[in-house]
Amino acid sequence: MSDGHDKVTNGANPEKDLSASNLPGRRGDQGEEIRVQRGMFGANNGGDTSGYGGLVRSIRLPGPATRPYGGWFDEVADELEGALEEQGLVPENVIDRTVVDRDEITFHIEREYLLPVAQILRDDPALRFELCTGVSGVHYPGDKGRELHAVYHLRSITHNRLIRLEVSAPDREPHIPSLVSVYPTNDWHERETYDFFGIVFDGHPALTRIMMPDDWQGFPQRKDYPLGGIPVEYKGAQIPAPDQRRSYS
């Protein structure tokens, strides 16, 4: 989208053009290492048939950013922190960290404050993030004490801005407040995230499975969920799961 002055804007970071110097780069050694992956698919019993059995790479989460964040990111951060203070909340207790990575900004929110933060972002005239396009679950088994993450994408139609909220919960207590009362369109998104990741959204009006049968055991999109084989009709054979096939590397 162009503003008439040959300046490219995309709603995520409109003050930067899409030149070669602004293309996303490797994260490298920056951020927080949560695990080291060996092979392509995590198979550790010789069943990696991809040919990448010798691959070793570090899995890292981007670290917190420092001000200035750049562009309108600082304006949004200032308005959010000011609105929190007006409600008697200490921003440092509410916002665990602010991450700017690949020209996108993410506010990591302590889960007990998720509901008031969403209310502020929706209703404050200087923010006006009227639309939440859903919640996505993420499972990091190596991120001890915060294995389950819920990521919300918020869009400001008024200001043409896009931000993310991220909330984490431990596997042993997978509870996060529901945002259906603030963003009703999250109804089925939260049900899907519960179905596949087991995150319990407290306050949801009808938190039931949406894709899997009601009596299904486990949560299929968690990384520790077992890989299943595919039954076929030919002579009763069965294709083994990827981590149980013979390795050729």
From TrEMBL:
It is a peripheral membrane protein. Pfam families: Complex1_30kDa. One of its GO terms (cellular component) is plasma membrane. Residues 1-18 have a biased composition (Basic and acidic residues). It catalyses: a quinone + NADH + 5 H(+)(in) = a quinol + NAD(+) + 4 H(+)(out). The keyword Flavoprotein does not apply. It comes from the Bacteria. It is found in: Cell membrane. One of its GO terms (molecular function) is NADH dehydrogenase (ubiquinone) activity. Coiled coil: none annotated. It is an enzyme of class 7 (translocase). Keywords: Cell membrane, Membrane, NAD, Oxidoreductase, Quinone, Translocase, Transport. NDH-1 is composed of 14 different subunits. Subunits NuoB, C, D, E, F, and G constitute the peripheral sector of the complex. Belongs to the complex I 30 kDa subunit family. NDH-1 shuttles electrons from NADH, via FMN and iron-sulfur (Fe-S) centers, to quinones in the respiratory chain. The immediate electron acceptor for the enzyme in this species is believed to be a menaquinone. Couples the redox reaction to proton translocation (for every two electrons transferred, four hydrogen ions are translocated across the cytoplasmic membrane), and thus conserves the redox energy in a proton gradient. NCBIfam families: NuoC_fam (TIGR01961), PRK07785.1 (NF005856). This is NADH-quinone oxidoreductase subunit C. The gene is nuoC.
